[in-house]
Please model this.
Amino acid sequence: MKILMLGFEYLPVKVGGLAEALTSIAETLAKLGNEVWVFTPSHGHIEGKKLLELEIKVYGGKEKVSVYERIQNGVRVFALSSSLLDNKDVYGPGWEGILSKAVQFGKASVGLLNFLIEKEGKPDVLHFHDWHTVFAGALIKKYFQIPAVFTIHRLNKSKVPAYYFHESHLSELAPYTDIDPEYVGAYIADVVTTVSKSYLWEEWNFYKNFEGKATHIYNGIARDFWNEELLENRDLPREERRRKILESLGLSDGTTFMFIGRFDRGQKGIDTLLRAIELLAQSYPSEFSKMRFLIIGKGDPELESWAQSLATKYPENVKVMTEMLKREFTRELYGSVDFVVVPSYFEPFGLVQMEAMCLGAIPIGSAVGGIKDTIISLDEDEENATGLLVPPRDPSALVQAFLRMAKLKEENPQLIEKMRQNGKRRTAEFTWEKACRRYMRAYKNDIDKAVDFLR
Ligand code: NHF
Model:
């Protein structure tokens, strides 16, 4: 099939998990014998040959947009460049900036597709991702009537003034003053997908509006990179790797829990983790003294200073790293720590628990979304357990989970080892190939749907 993908992040441009997902989907589809075109804003990453210069009318003026084409791992990537689309702030500058980017990207995508269709014919399917590409997706659907799949990696639930739709020549889709672009995307699409079954049902209030179109397609995990074979000290026993890495971070050895992610209040649950560490230190000082917490990430300055204050108060136990880590070093960490904490409030799929399991770290995660669907909890099935699920937003439950897992590690190391092995095996069930075979079914609308009355 000839597949046209639209996305706001594409490697090497990366803000979060979206870039990894889009790039893996496109490359795997290409490997499976499809011709894949990706349209993405340059966000300042200009690479490849200049294919085309467009002039588009926007906001009463004219704007020059250049298109650069490159082949990246079998995928034809078209980066759209203009003074606004080159802005390195992927989801900005500001709210107005991102909206204008989305509109400009939409109009320029039509120009580019016109050019390509004239020379090479029309794609068989349009696959657009997240709300930023909705203007582009809706315009392409309107002008070229291509079957369309809309994938939501994370609902944003924001409202956009109708004006932006009028400006995009999409007035027919904006009968009210404020419009949620996710509704528009799902409305114009033939199939709507999201990245885990639990997330779909958790957000049924949204998806129920598109019943009959909505389904889930799990992400995959790149096991070729997140692989123990590639660890620097792969020949050393895990405990020894842990001791060494803790030493390099200025900590003595101990049972190690790691958090890696954005410091925000809405999704990742770092505030629940910080509160749990406080409770643990106060109520269980002797157990706490044997534990180490590595907290990696950045974001909300208040949360950063809360984390730093814990590191100052408990320098033997808590280490905070706010600098960007190389992927290879992150892999070493996963391959050395005992447990990885994923306390998210919601998680459409979630990469962290998958990366952890690939490298034998046991995830302790909230029972939500993709975390719940990928971890087999110790409480559910001891034989096949890969981790422990806890209720979200519950610091005391997290404290109990830390105590329980630390104790288990001392008293039943065989079970811990079994969980590490189960986890590695579990990740093999989430491959990008499997995901893409399902996307290929979605492209033909030959796919099962989420049905409320069968739930
Ligand atoms: O893994 C890629 C990612 C997901 O849970 C993640 C999220 C955004 O929040 O699909 O998209």
In short: The radius of gyration is 23 Å. The mean pLDDT is 97. The first strand starts at residue 2 and ends at 6. The domain at 2-220+432-454 is CATH 3.40.50.2000 (Rossmann fold).
